[in-house]
Design a protein that fits this description.
By secondary structure, the protein is of the alpha/beta class. It has helices at 8-17, 33-43, 83-96, 110-118, 129-135, and strands at 20-24, 47-51, 76-79, 100-103, 122-125. It is globular. This is CoA-binding protein.
Length: 136
């Protein structure tokens, strides 16, 4: 994987300066890693937006079936889908006008990351927000 998708300055900026994170794949299931990551960032002052076909409320926040349905401006889209589905979520993030995409550990799609970067988004791939938060 190219180091350009793990730039410490981008990671630090996204964790400290962003306000709204949409989490693709976030459902009301505390047993899933996406739930834990969303809760951690929410506790650190970020607004989280669940994006899941069920569109259920999660962690006190209204859920939406797709990124296109989210009425708020999104700073970062966390793509918590298997790698083979990540590209679609990244393309939706680009179309929705997100400022950045974050693909967590083991979610690697270099072609999708390149599309996002070419569209002007910041990209972090194969990194964990919780681990990176602890490093900052």
């Amino acid at each position: 994987m190219a180091d350009e998708f793990a730039d410490p300055d981008v990671i630090r900026r996204l964790l400290t300066e962003s306000g709204t994170w949409a989490f693709v794949g976030l459902a009301d299931n505390p047993g899933r890693e996406v739930y834990n990551q969303a809760r951690l960032l929410q506790r650190r002052g970020k607004r989280i937006i669940p994006v899941h076909p069920a569109a259920a409320e999660v962690l006190g926040e209204q859920g939406y079936a797709s990124l296109a349905d989210v009425p708020a401006e999104v700073d970062v889209v966390g793509v918590y889908r298997r790698a083979e589905h990540a590209g679609q979520a990244v393309d939706e993030a680009i179309a929705a006008g997100a400022k950045a995409v974050w693909l967590p550990l083991q979610v690697i799609d270099e072609a999708a990351a390149r599309r996002a970067k070419d569209a002007g988004l910041d990209v972090v791939m194969d990194r964990c927000p919780a681990v990176e938060w602890a490093r900052r």
